[in-house]
Amino acid sequence: MDPTTFSALAEPNRFRMVELLRDGPLTVGEIAGRLELRQPQASKHLRVLLEAGIVEVEADANRRHYKLRAEPFLAMEAWLETYRSTWEERFDNLERYLQQLQAKEEKDK
């Protein structure tokens, strides 16, 4: 898992941009307008996302459309999957513990 992805997504405006782009490609102006940012600010954030490989750009005449790339999110999902069994085991242990507490409370009544 590339830490650059997490670093790029850690900034709230960039994270919000990714959220917007989930619905499809947008131009810098559209992104800036929806997030109430100045266009130079939006461009700066998009450049970071582009350098991190999170978005790609498609040129259409004089407009540039930004869209999400699947690869970084697939890599993130694969990385998180390595922790899933640990989380599930811990949640199962917590559930058993809570059931024991509940059974004890009912017995003590």
Assembly context of the chains? single chain
Largest sheet: 3 strands, antiparallel
Low-pLDDT runs: none
- Strand arrangement, major sheet: 1-3-2
- Secondary-structure element order, N to C: HHEHHEEH
Average per-residue pLDDT, rounded, comes to 93
Question: Which key features would you list for this structure?
Answer:
alpha+beta, 109 residues, 72% helix, 13% strand, elongated, three-stranded antiparallel beta sheet
Give a topology summary.
Blueprint: H1 3-10, H2 12-21, E1 26-27, H3 28-35, H4 39-51, E2 55-60, E3 63-68, H5 70-108
Antiparallel strand pairs: 1-3, 2-3
Helix pairs in contact: 3-4
Question: Quick summary of this structure?
Answer:
The protein has helices spanning 3-10, 12-21, 28-35, 39-51, 70-108; strands spanning 26-27, 55-60, 63-68. By secondary structure, it is an alpha+beta fold. It is elongated.
Could you explain the architecture of this structure?
- The chain is of the alpha+beta class.
- The chain is built from five helices and three strands.
- It has helices at 3-10, 12-21, 28-35, 39-51, 70-108; strands spanning 26-27, 55-60, 63-68.
- Strands 1-3-2 form a three-stranded antiparallel beta sheet.
- Helix 3 (28-35) crosses helix 4 (39-51).
- The radius of gyration is 21 Å and the shape is elongated.
- The model has no long low-confidence stretch (mean pLDDT 93).
